[in-house]
Amino acid sequence: MLTRIDHIGIACHDLDATVAFYRETYGFTDVHIEVNEEQGVREAMLKINETGDGAASYLQLLEPTREDSTVAKWLAKNGEGVHHIAFGTDGDVQDEADGIAAKGVRVLYDSPRRGSMGSRITFLHPKDAHGVLTELVQKA
Amino acid sequence: MLTRIDHIGIACHDLDATVAFYRETYGFTDVHIEVNEEQGVREAMLKINETGDGAASYLQLLEPTREDSTVAKWLAKNGEGVHHIAFGTDGDVQDEADGIAAKGVRVLYDSPRRGSMGSRITFLHPKDAHGVLTELVQKA
């Protein structure tokens, strides 16, 4: 079952400058930064609020680390902005994805990959989801 | 102070079909529908989770009701997808906006307008916010 908005993924050119913008403009000071080599991004998770399922909602700021990453290509086409949204599941993310696939939505990964802060993630095809690139997250 | 992700605003061509997609695909069944004539949208608020500040996070699905609405123009240019994000404040939304304006971010409304479910809202210019059209919400 999907029990929360886990995060909003936002693509940016300069992670440090964008983190500073969100911290100084809005006061979002709870920041975790990591590199995901597989995804080709350096990313910041800004915790915004606790959620009723015992987890939290974040902004995820994404800066590409190489030009062939999907986020780099997306930025070149669209400029900075919202790249994807993510829902958190209280179960196994592959089971969740299988249930959604059975309803006719294409799942982009054959098996879950590593997401932010040790999570397991997969993505759904935006063309099957009214134009929204949608991620499913099972937190660590 | 901004204390939650209030909602993610998603533009769509057919509100009823998109609500049905989110309900049937993800199980989001808590739906409030209203028309905002001033904004030129028919909208659905899908409650996703409670938040730690005593409020909740929603998906806001937006269908234009007239061709000259900002959402209609946005859809014609971009197609369906994420239109804006919104943070909830625990204070007065105009005070929040004034504090953000003082940091150099343009606020789009001279005074707050009516948002979903009786809220008071304003918007920040996306060019001042790393490409993200950002709404501030004071709930009813």
TrEMBL record, chains A, B:
<dbReference type="GO" id="GO:0046872">
    <property type="term" value="F:metal ion binding"/>
</dbReference>
<keyword id="KW-0413">Isomerase</keyword>
<keyword id="KW-0479">Metal-binding</keyword>
<comment type="similarity">
    <text>Belongs to the methylmalonyl-CoA epimerase family.</text>
</comment>
<feature type="domain" description="VOC">
    <location>
        <begin position="4"/>
        <end position="139"/>
    </location>
</feature>
<dbReference type="InterPro" id="IPR029068">
    <property type="entry name" value="Glyas_Bleomycin-R_OHBP_Dase"/>
</dbReference>
<dbReference type="GO" id="GO:0046491">
    <property type="term" value="P:L-methylmalonyl-CoA metabolic process"/>
</dbReference>
<dbReference type="InterPro" id="IPR051785">
    <property type="entry name" value="MMCE/EMCE_epimerase"/>
</dbReference>
<protein>
    <submittedName>
        <fullName>Methylmalonyl-CoA epimerase</fullName>
        <ecNumber>5.1.99.1</ecNumber>
    </submittedName>
</protein>
<dbReference type="InterPro" id="IPR037523">
    <property type="entry name" value="VOC_core"/>
</dbReference>
<dbReference type="GO" id="GO:0004493">
    <property type="term" value="F:methylmalonyl-CoA epimerase activity"/>
</dbReference>
<dbReference type="InterPro" id="IPR017515">
    <property type="entry name" value="MeMalonyl-CoA_epimerase"/>
</dbReference>
<dbReference type="Pfam" id="PF13669">
    <property type="entry name" value="Glyoxalase_4"/>
</dbReference>
